[in-house]
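Lecture 7 notes. Example A: sequence first, then its structure tokens.
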Amino acid sequence: MDHVEVEVKLRVPCSQLELIANRAIQAGGKVEGPLEEIDVYYQHPCRDLKVSDEALRVRYVNGSPRSITYKGPREAGQFKARREVIVDVGSDPDVLLRQLGFEPAIRVSKARTYIRLGNVELTLDNVEGLGCFVEVESLRGKDEDVSAAIKALDIRGEVVNRTYAELVAELSSGSVRST
């Protein structure tokens, strides 16, 4: 799947995740999870993906490989927007990536619940070492879907513009404090 991802990430108190989930369910949201997700981000053998604001990720769900994802540079807009290409996998692509010279660089582990509600998908995340977050993503790539869902569900929190991989990297270097 190739599309433009439009989303916002908000840091929230962990005690708010259940309340937000209940509001979304009462509004007709369909729930999947909680799931254990591990995302492994890879370094390119010939260029620095951090410098070009790109990412290559393999996602494991409940211990099994689920997808490999390319994320392009962030685009201008009210919310974070970037090209995203997702390819579902049936077996672990790690061996292939390593043979091509890619190396695992960052590992993000989280408990995640997905809630699909109208034109948005909410993810309620408890990220190891970082705390709790809500991501609101438009399924149509539209800023107004994100804004409407935040307002309708009364989601309040600190907007976080960095990715989980960036936050984990900063935590590992000692420049970010866990909440």
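Example B, a different protein, same format:
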Amino acid sequence: MGQPLTRILLDTDLAMGAPGADIDDGLALALALADPGLRVELVTTVSGNSDVATSTRLTRELLELLGHADVPVVEGAPAGGDAAAEIARRLLAEPGELTVVAIGPLTNVARAVASDPRVAAAAREIVVMGGVFLEQTNVAAMPGEYNFWCDPDAAQAVLTSGAALRLVGLDVTRKVRLSRADTKALAAGGEFGRFAATHIEGWIDAQNRTKPRDQLEQDSCALHDPLAVAVVTRPDLVTWQDAHVAVETAGRVTRGVAIADLLMWENPPAPNCRIATAVDVEAFTALFTERMAALP
């Protein structure tokens, strides 16, 4: 008997398919569908990398390209969509059975846990790509990691919800990258590989223009969201540490900044999550490459 499937609800601000837009949410969705240990039961959309209506459309188009048009997509915040209600409904219908994987701003997830005090405990766990914990962004205009910075109140609400949380932050995800050479290899694959490679090249070009002094971003892009998806079934890809994390919601210069107490002093606060502190880059890259090559 193989391992049982982990059933997930994926919450995303997907933008892959728009010229020059961020691509890691799209690659994360593809990776989730390619993982034999995962079953994607619902995709919900949120404003972030794209407006929510565009994200919803692009998500449906990408699911169709990947041969999974049957996966339901529900639009969410800020347009007053039903995503939060649907997340809550599904979690409450099957307590302990469903994992939420949140790879965009946490607006939908926060609204879901706020809708009923039972929702947070009903999630098997919530895995989040968000925050930066052992480093900082070093960007005054966006001091918090993007997903937390977009909606810091939502991030703080999720952290105080009592849900079982694992957080994969920017300081770890920036270390797993896709180069132009990797993109050419992806283009040699199937229809999705060719589609993805075109948009990855556009995103790398955009990064080169907008972040000219960021040497890490030159001619490559980070696989932030794919790493968060990968750790659902492969937690061994990263090093985990218990922590108590809080997010600054009102700071004049620190919007969205996550403060991680690593529980090192006497009488520490109670942990409210586990954070990723390191990543096995080689193992993740091998996994990602293998799964992408298997896509149609």
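Note on Example B: The chain has one domain: 6-293. The CA atoms of residues 43 and 140 lie 33 Å apart.
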